[in-house]
Each structure stands twice: as C-alpha cells, then as structure tokens.
C-alpha cells in the first residue's frame, strides 16, 4: 500500500518506518527541511531502541522516503497519517493548530479518495473538525479516521509491530476496509483490531493513559501511607497486584510520572471534561499527587542535612523521565534539580542517554559527568532519579569511596533495603523503611 505520514517526530517516524518494514511504500513529510535532509541521508533524528536498523534497511530498499513537499508527498498515497504535535495551550487544552493547518492544506490539494488518519492524541471531536476543514476546500471523496497510538518510548517498535490492540475509529465502510487491510499484518497473533466510532477512539486514548497515570498516583499515595504506618510498599504492591483484576504492571511507586504523554493527556482530559461542565475529580487528584511526588525526596534530603543544603553538593544518576530513552520532557529529575539549586546546593548529573538534551536545557545550572562514578566525586550524597539498568548493580564500594558520606536517596527503589543496611549506607527510598 502507498502511505504518507505527515510529521516526522517520534510517532511519525516510528509509524512510517514500521509500515515500510511490512512492505508498504511510505513517504514521510515534514516542514523542517533540515530534518528531512538528515533523514533522507540516513541520519536518524530520534533515539529509540531497534528503530535505526529498520530505518536504514527500508531507506536502502527504497520503501521509505522523506520530503518537505506536502502535495508531492501525498499525491499517490491511499492513506495519509497525521502525526503532528498537539502541545498543551496556556489553559491545558490541546492546541490543534498544526493539525487543522495541514487539514486545510490537504483540502486544497486532494484530487482523489484518501483515508486521512489522526494518529496524534487529540481531543474528542477532532476527527469531526478535520473532516469539516478538509471538506470546506475539497471536492473529492475522503474519510477521516481516528487511530490513536499506544507506543511506549523505549519499546515503541515492539509496541507498533505487536500491539495489544489496534483502535480504529471510523463509521465509513470504505475506510474500515482500507485500515483493516493495512493493520492485518500487525495482529496475526490474534490481538484485536477494535473498530468503533471516531469519538470513542479518541476518548480511548485519553482514558487509557489517564487510567495508567491514576494507577501510578494511587500507588504513590499508598507508598506515603506505608512509610507513615510502617508497612513496606514492595510487599503491598505484590499483594495487591496478584489480583488479576488489578494486575502486576504499573504499580511501581517512585518520584512521579513524566514524559510527553501522561502529564499532557491527563491535563487535556480534565480540560475536555471542564468544557462539557464536568469536574473529573479523580484526575485532578492524580495531577496534584504527581506534582507533589516529583519532590518526594526533597524533605528527606533536607532532614538528613538538617535543613541546610547551602554549599552541599549532590550527584544525580538518571535524568530521562524513564529508562531507555533520552527524553527529559516533564522528567521528575528536573524538578528536583530546581529545588536543590534553589536551596543553595550544586548538582553533578549523569544519564546514559539524555546528557545532550539536559545540557541543551540546563546549560551551566548543573555540572556534567562522563561516567556514573565520576559523577560521585566530592558529592555529599547520591540521588537516583531514573531506573536505568546500569544503576541496578553498581559497585557499592566505589560509591562509598567517592561520596563524602555514604548516603543514597533513591527515587526508584532500586536496591534491597536490608542489603543497604549491611553495606552501611544511609538509604532512603519510596514507601519502604529508611536505613539510618
Ligand atoms: C505512555 C503510554 O504507556 C503509551 O501507551 C502512550 O501511548 C504514551 O504514553 P511513555 O510516555 O513512553 O508511554 O511511558 P510509560 O512507559 O508508560 O511510563 C510513563 C511514566 O510512568 C514514566 O515516567 C514512568 O517512570 C512512570 N511509571 C510507570 C511509574 O512511575 N510507575 C510504574 O509502575 C510505571
């Protein structure tokens, strides 16, 4: 099938590359000439495990193309995916201007039937709006479909190739047939393609992410309670998660969720609710809990240093909002750095993949280490903000030797509490007994 993907950001590039990998002929379109140039020349623009190999192969085999020209890029396509940004506006609602501008442009240039697919996370009713805008200018037949993505950064290729489900929102038989054919290779294992109306598909995406965010904030509150009552959140988590109705996944407490999806999507769903005069109480609480949770370790650090962080120096391991990505958007680490620096402390940071992004954002606000152990030099304590695998079994002797005092504040519960006691660390984590 001939496919176009408008927008070569994270979602667009994964979508385009994975469709090419299943034998489709894909043209990706972006207004950023520099990006298009790089991609055409085989230079991948995002970090995503496994993507580069597929990208290089499909580029070489001439199934993947890049252009800045929308008209040329969509000319022969049967399906056009819109993978454009929907950043939160001032009031938290999703800004649809990128999508609606492209819709208008498409309306002016389409000359034959196309299926136009909203891949971006967009508020309920967007497919209708896109349909209306295109229809204002276009004389030929077309259908607008909602097909939200459920890609997790770090495992996006796998998520695309073997999705738990594919959600397709359309009431058009013609579009349904095209989309069913296109996605058939991805659901051979038996996972469902769920056909529904456009609005239900749009809401499914927000509801899924908001539910997952709720699970996290809920467990973060249970962790706080564990500390206050003297229970162990690891035990409670296992006890709770063994109930099939609840499930073991996404119950890990920590220093809050971040990234480009959860914070934005929860906020946008609250906003959408407000627009129809509904106060979504649970989600407001989920957001409040998460804001507080990002700074969960700060009072513990303050208490350990007698409320005086002036002149103290901290090593921070992990800045990405989660492991296996270089993405630092809404990363809890950034909020902690702000709080530490505001209290007069200095911070040296290390992350296996996110250093370039952090340097671009923070400049001279922090110091940068090339290696996780170099990061510890002269530090009064180590703070762990992201659960990268390389941090899970460190050389504790080296840590002890490098720190001024053996103190670790772990926002991701990486280490066994009793082991840390044996090793003689002051060790604090989330929802478990502190080692003094
Ligand atoms: C998410 C959704 O999972 C995906 O389906 C959607 O399409 C995009 O948003 P992603 O943002 O890549 O994907 O991150 P995810 O792996 O879901 O983690 C989100 C955040 O939750 C991270 O900050 C992570 O640290 C946090 N988290 C996750 C926890 O704090 N505890 C957990 O148990 C799980």
CATH fourth-tier homologous superfamily of the largest domain: NAD(P)-binding Rossmann-like Domain
- The shape, in one word, is elongated
Q: How far is it from the N-terminal to the C-terminal residue, by CA?
A: 63 Å
Radius of gyration: 24 Å
Largest sheet geometry? 6 strands, parallel
CATH topology of the largest domain: Rossmann fold
- Care to count the β-strands? 14
CATH-defined architecture of the largest domain: 3-Layer(aba) Sandwich
Helix tally? 17
Structural class: alpha/beta
EC number: 1.1.1.22
Active site: 261
Catalytic activity: UDP-alpha-D-glucose + 2 NAD(+) + H2O = UDP-alpha-D-glucuronate + 2 NADH + 3 H(+)
Binding site for NAD(+): 30, 35, 86, 121, 153, 264, 329
Protein described:
By secondary structure, the chain is α/β, with parallel strands linked by helices. The chain folds into 3 domains: 2-194, Rossmann fold, CATH 3.40.50.720; 206-292, Orthogonal Bundle (N-(1-d-carboxylethyl)-l-norvaline Dehydrogenase, domain 2); 294-428, NAD(P)-binding Rossmann-like Domain (Rossmann fold, 3-Layer(aba) Sandwich). It is built from 17 helices and 14 strands. The chain has a 6-stranded parallel β-sheet, sandwiched between helices. Strands 11-10-9-12-13-14 form a 6-stranded parallel β-sheet, with helices on both faces. A two-stranded parallel ribbon has the order 7-8. The chain is elongated and about 70 Å long. Residues 149-153, 209, 212, 216, 250-252, 254, 257-259, 261-262, 321-322 line the site of uridine-5'-diphosphate-xylopyranose (UDX).
């Amino acid at each position: 099938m001939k496919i176009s993907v408008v927008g070569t950001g994270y979602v667009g590039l994964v979508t385009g590359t994975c469709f090419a990998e299943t034998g489709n002929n894909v043209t990706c379109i972006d207004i950023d000439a520099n990006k298009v140039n790089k991609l055409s020349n085989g230079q991948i623009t995002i970090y995503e495990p496994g993507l580069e190999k597929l990208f290089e192969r499909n580029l070489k085999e001439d199934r993947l193309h890049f252009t800045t020209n929308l008209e040329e890029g969509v000319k022969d396509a049967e399906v056009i995916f819109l993978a454009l940004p929907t950043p939160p506006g001032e009031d938290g609602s999703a800004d649809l201007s990128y999508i609606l501008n492209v819709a208008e442009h498409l309306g002016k240039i389409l000359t034959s039937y196309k299926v136009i697919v909203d891949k971006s996370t967009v508020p309920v009713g967007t497919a209708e709006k896109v349909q209306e805008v295109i229809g204002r200018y276009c004389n030929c037949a077309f259908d607008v479909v909602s097909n939200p993505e459920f890609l997790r950064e770090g495992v996006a290729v796998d998520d695309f190739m073997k999705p738990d489900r594919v959600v397709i929102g359309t009431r058009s038989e013609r579009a349904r047939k095209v989309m069913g054919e296109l996605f058939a290779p991805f659901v051979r294992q038996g996972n469902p393609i769920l056909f529904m109306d456009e609005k239900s598909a749009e809401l499914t995406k927000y509801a899924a992410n908001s539910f997952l965010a709720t699970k996290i904030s809920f467990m973060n509150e249970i962790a706080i309670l564990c500390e206050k009552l003297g229970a162990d959140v690891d035990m409670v988590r296992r006890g709770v998660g063994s109930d099939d109705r609840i499930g073991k996944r996404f119950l890990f407490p920590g220093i809050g969720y971040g990234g480009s999806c959860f914070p934005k999507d929860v906020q946008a769903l609250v906003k959408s609710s407000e627009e129809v005069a509904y106060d979504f109480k649970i989600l407001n609480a989920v957001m409040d809990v998460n804001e507080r949770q990002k700074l969960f370790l700060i009072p513990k650090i303050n208490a350990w240093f007698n409320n005086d962080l002036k002149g103290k120096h901290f090593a921070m391991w992990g800045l990405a909002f989660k492991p296996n990505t270089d993405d630092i958007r809404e990363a809890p680490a950034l909020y902690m750095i702000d709080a530490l620096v505001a209290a007069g402390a200095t911070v040296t940071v290390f992350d296996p993949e996110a250093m370039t992004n952090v340097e671009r954002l923070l400049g001279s606000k922090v110091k940068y280490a090339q290696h996780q152990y170099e990061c510890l030099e002269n530090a009064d304590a180590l703070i762990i903000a992201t659960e990268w695998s390389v941090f899970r079994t460190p050389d504790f002797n080296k840590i002890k030797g490098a720190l001024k005092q053996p103190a670790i504040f772990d926002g991701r519960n990486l280490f066994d509490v009793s082991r840390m006691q044996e090793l003689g660390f002051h060790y604090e984590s989330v929802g478990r007994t502190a080692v003094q």
